[in-house]
Amino acid sequence: xxxxxxxxxxxxxxxxxxxxxxxxxxxxxxxxxxxxxxxxxxxxxxxxxxxxxxxxxxxxxxxxxxxxxxxxxxxxxxxxxxxxxxxxxxxxxxxxxxxxxxxxxxxxxxxxxxxxxxxxxxxxxxxxxxxxxxxxxxxxxxxxxxxxxxxxxxxxxxxxxxxxxxxxxxxxxx
Length: 174
Prior knowledge:
By secondary structure, the chain is mainly α.
């Protein structure tokens, strides 16, 4: 499915994925959360080509996830800073890190590449999901979804279009 098609879907996951779909995006977010904000530093730590880095930074800027801020005037040089929208991706990046720590190793000495520490506390930071209303821990088994009327209609239309395409293909159509 094309990225632009995802952006048009009536689904929070599809639309946000269209902005964050590329693995490089998460590597760039990691770097920005580690306060590496300048082009040369981002290129050094990601290994991306200048063209690929420029394109991805432009996409993230257009999506409102980062902004370019001049840090030098002659010649003008920029750094990339997370916007409020970008900063709200922190738990997503940390959840991906924690998942990767568990499933993407093995790591030397069983130590993950990056350890987060809870500031002003004497322990490692480990995120988990807790319901903000009742305070109970939650996971996939302790929640259920309710589709909006718009999402239900879109899903019905997609299923109908799929059935039509399959039927048409079986009958020798294009």
